[in-house]
């Protein structure tokens, strides 16, 4: 089989592209200037218009069914078709966009009716999210946060038995580039006996992997661990914005509420499981003494190749840095290999009680911090709860986010013998709270 490093496209900008070479082909929803949102595929610096390709008769068979489902204003119908249709569309796209495409002359002749410059298009949320669940599978983050509140017992007893999660708010999920307004809420200031109301003073981000659900399950029926990965339609980057002072006051006894529900930002492109196949790896072995997963969460194949090797990066751009023309500052570099539970285990556990998952449901992995100081996925960890300010090249410091700050998440997959691929950006800028 031809190595993905040799997969070249007649779309010249795709060859060697940092995010979107021919090996990637992520799907999303975009609108050209003045146009309506519809489905497209990222290829180099361009968006391949799936609806225009359907109208031009470029697909047939199962690929045509998949392309039609992916051509609308959301990808829910495409997600619902499952892996077979998704793979058929990918094969067709590889043939159409490959360097030796039999259709090359015709496609080049279609110009911007088929390939639109990405810089001239607006991206939209790729699917209508019916339900959103935020997990807590980053064990280093769980340990770090636990130590802030329980130094002698950072992890509660259930953590290594149960993929911990809470039900989030789907209505405030938005796409990269949309601003985030600082939330108002109740906080209990240090030393106070009664709460006060006002804007959060401890606004934070969380570096997460987003998981889009494809085919769901009937209510009352569970998804087995061996079948769970086939229910995943794709992946994105996710920023779970967090108001730490609101969270500290409200989270007992039921967990996060207003401290999380005000905003969640996702990257616009859905990177498919097929594009990530070369970057699968074994789930890291559990430390000696840790319990093994209960049988419904254990599958040998999943343990051998159910993890993903994706490099995750966080950058910060302040108002002052922007004014001085300074580039965003990297503040963390981590990896999806820091997940204590696999994606399949998350899917299996979510459905084991009979909960029905649906196409377009979204999971967040939880904050994916690494073991070192330069791999922490939130300011809460970087600054030790605000005790050790982060120093920036502009001369500024941060304990938590200030108005005008912009958080940019990026991701990259690299493996010898394969073209590296990326996810694009997950970007959000903080605006002042409403008065």
Can you offer a commentary on this structure?
The protein has 435 residues and is α+β, with helices and mostly antiparallel strands. The protein has 2 domains: 113 residues, Roll (SH3 type barrels); 300 residues, Fumarylacetoacetate hydrolase, domain 2. It has 12 helices and 26 strands. The strands form 7 sheets. It has a 7-stranded mixed β-sheet, covered by helices on one side. Strands 9, 19, 20, 24, 25 and 26 form a 6-stranded mixed β-sheet that branches. Strand 24 and strand 25 form a beta hairpin. Helix 2 crosses helix 4. The longest helix is centred in the N-terminal third of the chain and has 15 residues. The radius of gyration is 22 Å and the shape is globular. The N terminus is likely disordered.
Features:
six-stranded mixed β-sheet, 435 residues, Fumarylacetoacetase-like_C, 26 strands, Fumarylacetoacetate hydrolase, domain 2, seven-stranded mixed β-sheet, 2 domains, metal-binding, tyrosine catabolism, SH3 type barrels, calcium, metal ion binding, alpha+beta, disordered N terminus
CATH top level of the largest domain?
A: Alpha Beta
Query: How many separate helices?
Result: 12
In terms of DSSP E residues, the strand content is: 25-35%
Number of strands: 26
CATH architecture of the largest domain: Alpha-Beta Complex
On the 0-100 scale, what is the average pLDDT?
96
Structural class: alpha+beta
Q: What is the percent of helical residues? A: 10-25%
Strand order of the largest sheet: 7-6-21-13-14-16-8
Number of domains: 2
Uncertain regions spanning at least 5 consecutive residues: 1-5
**Main pleated sheet:** 7 strands, mixed
Computed Rg: 22 Å
- Give the termini distance in whole angstroms: 60 Å
Q: What coarse outline follows from CA principal-axis ratios?
A: globular
Write down the CATH topology of the largest domain: Fumarylacetoacetate hydrolase, domain 2
CATH homology-level superfamily of the largest domain: Fumarylacetoacetase-like, C-terminal domain
